[in-house]
């Protein structure tokens, strides 16, 4: 199992724009003050458009009638079920880029049906992969929140591509101590990526979902689609492993304090 990496956004602060159609959410395309659907060219470079999510009580599964989940993890036990989850152990040395997370299972706790991953000021945190959620194509949905904390800590919900280099970060909050603008990153090819950003208060519960098929990738927040691409080169073709990570990038903050993220549940649906 590979562990967390984050490919850098272009130095100018831009990213490869999503070939996106955002439904049911107000979006500005930068050329008009009116809400609109976006239809960016997949190979164009421009600022990722902000998206504002609304009601925090919906799910993509309910809105789009995904049916019963194939698998579900509700964290009802007294600890993380190690039969279903791989807990990372890593001293944090020799990692590429700015990610220096030191991982140990003791940083992940389960209590009252909630998983809490706690990151310490010195970089000790945790990440974990859900064995039962591994699938080539599917729909994954997770209820999550993250407390305000050091911008050096990045709460991440992602799918790792195991048989071909791919990474689908369907919620990653970076350099954001207030937890207000998580991103969707779809990494592919030779350090290429598609990106979108949404404005939500991550200190409150929200559901983030991702749908991967042979022809498209979609991202959802609280039942509303905010990321979409049909770019063939960007679509993962191998097995995908869902993981939950709290990553440490010490270079993202002058001072280092702690951080945490909590997960209520994660579910897998057939695509």
UniProtKB/TrEMBL annotation:
Residues 86-100 have a biased composition (Basic and acidic residues). Signal peptide: none annotated. It comes from the Bacteria. Residues 31-271 form the GH16 domain. CDD domains: Glyco_hydrolase_16 (cd00413). InterPro entries: Beta-glucanase-like (IPR000757), ConA-like_dom_sf (IPR013320). It holds the Pfam family Glyco_hydro_16. Residues 86-108 are annotated as: Disordered. This is GH16 domain-containing protein. It comes from Actinoallomurus vinaceus.
């Amino acid at each position: 199992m590979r562990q967390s990496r984050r490919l850098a956004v272009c130095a100018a602060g831009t990213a490869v724009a999503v070939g996106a159609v955002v439904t049911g959410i107000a979006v500005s395309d930068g050329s008009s003050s009116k809400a609109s659907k976006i239809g960016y060219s997949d190979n164009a470079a421009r600022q990722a458009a902000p998206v504002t999510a609304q009601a925090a009580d919906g799910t993509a599964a309910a809105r789009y009638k995904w049916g019963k989940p194939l698998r579900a993890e509700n964290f009802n036990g007294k600890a993380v079920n190690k039969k279903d989850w791989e807990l990372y152990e890593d001293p944090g040395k020799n990692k590429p880029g700015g990610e220096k997370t030191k991982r140990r299972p003791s940083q992940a706790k389960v209590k009252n049906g909630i998983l809490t991953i706690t990151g310490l000021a010195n970089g000790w945190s945790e990440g974990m992969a859900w064995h039962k959620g591994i699938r080539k194509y599917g729909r994954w949905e997770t209820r999550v929140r993250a407390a305000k904390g050091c911008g050096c800590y990045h709460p991440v919900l992602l799918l790792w591509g195991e048989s071909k280099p791919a990474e689908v970060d369907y919620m990653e909050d970076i350099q954001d101590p207030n937890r207000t603008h998580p991103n969707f990153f779809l990494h592919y090819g030779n350090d290429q990526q598609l990106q979108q950003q949404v404005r939500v208060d991550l200190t409150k519960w929200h559901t983030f979902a991702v749908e991967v098929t042979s022809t498209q990738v979609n991202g959802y927040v609280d039942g509303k689609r905010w990321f979409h691409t049909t770019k063939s080169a960007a679509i993962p073709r191998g097995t995908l492993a869902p993981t939950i990570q709290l990553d440490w990038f010490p270079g993202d903050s002058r001072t280092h304090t702690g951080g945490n993220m909590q997960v209520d549940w994660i579910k897998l649906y057939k695509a």
